[in-house]
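Hi support team,

I submitted a single chain yesterday and got back a structure, but I'm not sure I'm reading the C-alpha cell output correctly. Could someone confirm the output below corresponds to the sequence I sent? I've pasted both exactly as they appear in my results page.

Thanks,
R.
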Amino acid sequence: MSAVDRGGARLAEAVSRAYAAGLDDYHLEPMVLTENGVPVGRIRDGDAVVFCCRRGEREVELTEMFTDPDFSAVDRRQLQDLYFAILTLYHDKFKHLPVAFAPEHVKLPLAQVLSQAGKTQFHCAESEKFAHVTFFFNGGENQPFPGEDDVCIPSPKGIDFDQKPELSLPEVADTVTAALGTYDFIVTNFANGDVIGHTQNTEAKLAACGHVSRALKQVTEAALAKVYVVAITADHGNIEKLYTAAGKPDGAHTTNLVPFLLIDPSAPGPISLRDGALSDVAPTVLEVLGIPQPPEMTGRSLAAGHSWGKDRKMLLVICDGWGLGTGDAGDAIHLADTPYWDSLLGSHSWCRLQASGDAVGLGGGKAGNSEAGHSNLGAGRRVPQDDVRLDAAVKDGSFARNPVFLDAVRHVRRSGGTLHLLAYLTHKSSHGSIDYPLAICRMAKEEGLSEVCFHIIFDGRSTEPGSAPALLAELDSSLEEIGLGRIVDGVGRGVVLDRDKNYDKVKRAYDALTDGAGTHYQ
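Hi R., thanks for writing in. Yes, this is the structure output for that exact sequence:
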C-alpha cells in the first residue's frame, strides 16, 4: 500500500459504478476491497470492533449477530475472542458489553407517572417507530410499566417504502380505534411523514400526507365520540420540505417548528394555547388527566387555565416528521390532498412547538430527530441527547481517552488482532458522525497500533444524494493526515442498520464484514 492509498478512492469508484446501476447511498449493497482476489480487512477471531453509531434501534440487529451466543434468526459464523464495543447502550440486553457512553435514564417519565397514578395506557405504532412510543417515550425503559399495554404493527417487508406510502398506517389506525374506551391514555405514532419523507419520491410523499390526514380523521373522530381529549403533534419536521436549496429532492430532517393541536369534546369553544416545546406536552397530558406534575418535569402545560373536569381520558397522536412548512410549492403537506388536516388547523386550537436544537437537548441549530423528539415528549423536560455529550467529549479530548476504546487497543495488542471501526459516513446524522471513528483512529496511532480498518456505513438521509465519493475523498485525506487507517468496505444504511427484524439483509452486511461476501472491487 502506498503512503497515500487509504482506500477511499477505490471504494468511491465502486460506489460510482453502483450509482450507474441505479442504487443510491441508502440502499448500497456490500462492497468489499480485494487484493489478488482475496478480501482484505475482514473481522476475525481475536479482533476488536467499535460500533461508532450512537442511536439504538437500528444498531440492535447487527450487534446481536456479533455478540449473542444464542442468536438463531439466521445462520452466521460466530467469532471467538472478539472485543465488541458499542458507543451507547442500544438496548438493555447489551448491558454486559463494553459501552463507551452509558445512557442517562429519565427519572419519572410520563408513562411511569401515569402508571403510579393507577391509569391504564396503550402505546401503539408500526415496527419502524415502535421503539419510539415505548423505549424512547418511556425514558429509556424497555419494559412496559404496570397498566401499560404495547402493540407493534409490522411495517411492510420486502419492498421499498415509497412503493407503499401508506405503510401500515391503516392497521395502526384500526388498532388505536379499537382500543378507545378501554384505556385512560393512548399514544400512537403515524410513521409516514418521516419514513416516506426520507425518500426521494415526491409523489409518494404527497400520497403519504393524504394517508396521514385520513388516519387522523378516523382516530380523532372516534376518540371525540368517546369523549377523549385529543392532542395531535409531531416529533420533528421532515416531509414538509420537498426540495433542497439546489432544487433536489430533500430527504433530511428539518429544524422547523411542529404543530400542537388540542381538542376537548366537552368544551366546544377554543382552548387558549401558548407556543412552547416538545417538553411541554407531558405536563399538558398530566393536567388533562388531573395528575400532579412531578418536580422532575420542568416543562409547563400548554393549556394552563383550561378547566378539564374530572376523570378525563386522552389520545396523543404523534405524526412523525410532520413539521410546519412554507405553505408553498415546496411544502408536501400544503400540496397534498389533506382536507381533514386542513380542517383541524382551521377549526381547532393549535400552537407551535420547538422540536430541534437546544430545545430538545441537541446541539444548537441541529435538526430534530425521532429519538430526541419522543424522549422529550415522554419526559416532560429537555433531555440531553447523546450527540451533545459525545461531541463535547470529542472537543475536550476525553472521547479518545475513553476506557472502552483504550481496552479495545489493549485487546488487539494482546491477541495480535486488528482494530475495526464501523464508521458512519456523515457529519450530522443523529446516528453518528465520522468524527467519532477518526478520534479513535488518532488515539490508536498515539498508542502505537499499525493497523486500523474502517468499515463504511453510507447514510443517504442526512447526506446529499450522490455525495458518498466526495465524503470518501475527505475521509481519505483525514486518514492520511493521521497516518493510520484503511477503508476496506462499505454498505448502505438501509441494509446494515435495520430495525424491523429483516435479519437476512443484516446478514449480507455481517457476511461482508467477516467473510468478504459481496461485490468485490480492487
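A quick pointer for reading it: Residues 8-102+388-521 form a domain with the 2,3-Bisphosphoglycerate-independent phosphoglycerate mutase, substrate-binding domain fold (CATH 3.40.1450.10). Let us know if anything else looks off.

Best,
Support desk
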